[in-house]
Automatic annotation (TrEMBL):
Name of the molecule in the record: Helix-hairpin-helix domain-containing protein
Gene3D superfamilies assigned to the protein according to its UniProt record, in alphabetical order: 5' to 3' exonuclease, C-terminal subdomain
Length: 105
């Protein structure tokens, strides 16, 4: 009998920072970026409060020894804003702001 692979189930995303208990519940954060956050010492969404997304991005680049795609910075900006109380927004909404603040990362 052939095994049937079940589709992966995505974590439900939090609608507010207060209801966010796991990194994967953050808007725009999937398993891979959650692991990246854990790699730099962020294990709970609340740890993102007051953090600078650019510093997190630089730390990830340093720890991995790789220049991360700039969209990772956009995603970190979205996550830190969300945990600061902003409404959920897609990461690409932060691209223009990232370019204005940091140029080509």
């Amino acid at each position: 009998m052939a095994s049937i692979k079940s589709p992966s189930i995505k974590s439900p995303k939090a609608k507010t920072a207060d209801e966010c208990e796991r990194l994967e519940q953050l808007p725009n954060i999937g398993p891979s970026l959650a692991e990246d956050l854990r790699l730099i010492g962020i294990h709970q969404p609340q740890q993102l409060r007051g953090k600078d997304a650019f510093v997190l991005y630089q730390k990830l680049c340093s720890v991995t020894g790789t220049r991360q795609d700039p969209c990772v910075l956009d995603t970190f900006m979205a996550a830190t804003d969300f945990m600061a109380g902003a409404a959920p927004a897609p990461w690409w909404n932060y691209t223009a702001q990232r370019k204005a603040l940091f140029g080509s990362v």
